[in-house]
Inverse folding.
């Protein structure tokens, strides 16, 4: 019995190590500062256009029925891993949601659906990484360890894509929230399960207090 418990404990430690390693990979990618401005007039290369044409042609040939994607989104087996804080479908803070125009609410819901697909995809990738890691460990296939690294890089990029979707959602709201809540558009304002960090009212109050103190000093 003791041997069984020790084996279970060993497997838990290994799993925790893999999850921690994947989290570090995502954090490291964020630290590389993928900050850039989107150039709406930027032209892509011919190579990119050709690739898009190939993908589009392929999709037309084997287009999945909408019901298939709907079923995948509802699949309980594809629930987000709780260990990955950076991979979550982010909700709009209620205070902000209440002041959005109907048009922006519709757009935000569509962006949130895209975000859900990214999170679901990342969940599948995380499970593949876990299985691949176990397989390579058992077979001691050190020469294929680069496969695991590539998969983890893909997962990190999904985390980064999730972050970019959050920033774009904020940008699309800017004309509704500029003014009292304009400071929330700063990219340094963190998000968690809420798009603006969940402490919007407190944030506004703090800024108001700072402004009053500044005026008194003057």
């Amino acid at each position: 019995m003791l041997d069984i418990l020790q084996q279970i404990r060993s497997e838990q430690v290994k799993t925790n190590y893999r999850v921690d390693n994947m989290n570090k990979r995502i954090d490291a990618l964020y630290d590389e500062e993928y900050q850039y401005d989107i150039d709406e007039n930027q032209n892509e290369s011919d190579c990119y256009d050709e690739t898009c044409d190939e993908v589009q042609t392929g999709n037309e040939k084997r287009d999945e029925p909408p019901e298939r994607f709907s079923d995948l989104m509802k699949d309980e087996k594809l629930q987000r891993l709780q260990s990955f804080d950076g991979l979550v479908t982010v909700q709009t803070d209620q205070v902000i949601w209440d002041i959005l125009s109907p048009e922006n609410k519709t757009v935000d819901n569509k962006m949130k659906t895209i975000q859900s697909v990214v999170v679901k995809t990342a969940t599948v990738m995380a499970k593949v990484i876990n299985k691949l890691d176990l397989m390579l460990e058992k077979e001691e296939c050190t020469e294929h360890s680069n496969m695991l690294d590539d998969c983890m890089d893909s997962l990190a990029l999904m985390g980064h894509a999730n972050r970019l979707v959050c920033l774009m959602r904020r940008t699309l709201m800017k004309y509704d929230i500029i003014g009292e809540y304009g400071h929330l558009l700063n990219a340094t304002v963190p998000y968690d399960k809420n798009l603006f960090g969940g402490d919007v009212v407190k944030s506004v109050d703090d800024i108001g207090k700072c402004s009053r103190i500044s005026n008194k000093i003057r």
